[in-house]
Amino acid sequence: MPLQLGVLVSGRGSNLQAVLDACEAGSLDAQVRLVLSNKSDAQALDRAEAAGVPTRVLDHRAFPSRAAFDEEMLQVLRSAGVEWVVLAGFMRLLTPQFIEGFRDRIVNVHP
Q1: Domain of 47: which CATH number?
Q2: I need a labelling partner for 65 at 20 to 30 A (CA). Which of 23, 34, 71, 96 fits?
Q3: pLDDT tens sequence across 73-106
């Protein structure tokens, strides 16, 4: 059964593209369920949309705290059926509550 991935991005999306390409080629037995960004102008969102992957933007500045932002990310990812999280150039520190929410199921591919 393919891994159900949520990919967190903040920038251009070159690492996201590598994940998408690996899924398409069959070298990564996974499906990207959602690409989530904290920046509405992240080029990675365009890459996701071109691949037919749903996207979501959560502006961290709209939340009263880092914990509130991370809690919303947890809810969005879970609602999308995400089981594993890939940090692909995501430029935010994560709270312990977020890490615990996907304990042993977070991969950081940071440039």
Answers
A1: 3.40.50.170
A2: 34
A3: 999 999 999 999 999 999 999 999 999 999 999 9
Domain count, the chain: 1
- Within 10 angstroms of residue 75's Cβ, the number of other Cβ atoms is 11
Contact 44, 37 (CB under 8 A): yes
- 110 is an active site residue: yes
Compute φ and ψ for 107, nearest 5 degrees: -120, 130
pLDDT for the residue numbered 111? 61
Q: How far apart (Å, rounded) are the C-alpha atoms in residues 63 and 40? A: 15
Q: Which residue of the set 93, 103, 110, 111 is catalytic?
A: 110
